Amino acid sequence: MGYDALLWLSFGGPEGPDDVMPFLENVTKGRGVPRERLLEVAEHYRHFDGVSPINKLNRDAIAAVEKQLAAAGVDLPVHFGNRNWHPMVEDTLASLTEAGAKRVLVFPTSAYGGYSACRQYDEDIERARAAVGEGAPELVKLRHFFDHPLFVSAVADGVRAAHASLGDVPGVRTVFTAHSVPESADLAAGPPAEGGRRYSRQIAEAARLVAAEAGIAEYDVVWQSRSGPPQVPWLEPDIVDHIDALHAAGVPGVVVSPIGFVSDHLEVIWDLDNEAAERAAEHGMAFARAATAGADPRFAELVVELIREHTHEAAPRKLSPFPAGGCTINGAPCAIGCCEPAKRPSR
């Protein structure tokens, strides 16, 4: 039995000033994020007229994938759905169901495992199928791709280009960043038999692979964009704090690669191109931010390769010994207890 479509499943973002607070409330629903933090993040969006670049970036990536699919002779329409803002995944799946789709591949725009990076997409799938009800198509989620050679080479070329942009400054440090998560979430990431920390271990492995590809012997892995209450421990160090530490150690410059992200959405633009860049400038440090993989032509090729693993039984390509996780059906987790969400205290 073949597949009727690809569902491109992403996070979503506001596309106008009136969307910002409703979007942020969707994102943080049930997470106990203080109102003042929402207002602080909302102000970041106002610097960009209330428009997140993420939806346009996804539409551009979808167009590139459609072109690659056509070139590869794969007849598979691509449909766009989001978790937190329009087009909502529930609406997209309802349209696919009405069109008669029976079996659909799902590409989540995250390369990694962990609750936010993987299990939450399973929940999106389960919720969307429940909203559609009887007749909803079978949804088959594609696997993690942090160690796919096309992802690694695209990120590595971004790192090389960022270093080249700084010229001959000696001693520039390469720093890889990813979205921070609570320590408890990272400890629960992956099947229990793995011992946890699938997310941070995959980030570390991706950084190792990219550094090797780019010919970089020494580098750091740090975190960004934490949003939880201050009393909850999150993965550290934060990128801005790390720039302070590098300056104190006499490092003259930094190249920052947002390896945990697939596109230049707002958290990349604000947290790195603004806050991190400004801190480096305060210290008189050279600064360059490497491109994410999403706009690189190899990213579309990667997605088509992941699709062909299902449509044409193509052999998976990967560069690490990590299990090829993330491929699940109808929102089922990879394993019992895999990436369990944190239990929130009852009120």
From TrEMBL:
Localisation per UniProt entry: Cytoplasm
Keyword Phosphoprotein carried by entry: no
Family membership noted in the UniProt record: Belongs to the ferrochelatase family.
Keywords linked to the UniProt accession: Cytoplasm, Heme biosynthesis, Iron, Lyase, Metal-binding, Porphyrin biosynthesis
Positions with a binding annotation for Fe(2+): H179, E267
UniProt gene name: cpfC
Pfam families according to UniProt: Ferrochelatase
Lineage, broadest ranks: Bacteria, Bacillati, Actinomycetota, Actinomycetes, Pseudonocardiales
Catalytic function, reaction form: Fe-coproporphyrin III + 2 H(+) = coproporphyrin III + Fe(2+)
Name of this protein: Coproporphyrin III ferrochelatase
Binding site for Fe-coproporphyrin III: S52, Y121
